[in-house]
Design brief:
Blueprint (H helix, E strand, L loop, with lengths): L2 E2 L8 H16 L6 H11 L2 E2 L10
Antiparallel strand pairs: 1-2
Helix pairs in contact: 1-2
Length: about 60
């Protein structure tokens, strides 16, 4: 499971939306079954780490 880092490198809401837009452009260029490409887009544009989410409760 991936979790989004609490701190982010984007200073403004516009920069955050721009990062999301860039992520969607990136994954639209990936082959449908290329998980490496998709993962690279997530790590590059959404700044996701690979640590398990320990503070999430599933009801």
């Amino acid at each position: 499971m991936h979790s989004i880092k609490g701190g982010h490198s984007h200073g403004s809401i516009i920069e955050r939306w721009q990062a999301i837009d860039e992520y969607f452009v990136c994954i639209s260029e990936c082959d449908l079954y290329d998980q490496v490409c998709t993962t690279r887009c997530v790590l590059t544009h959404l700044k996701v780490d690979d640590e398990p989410m320990t503070d999430v409760t599933i009801a």
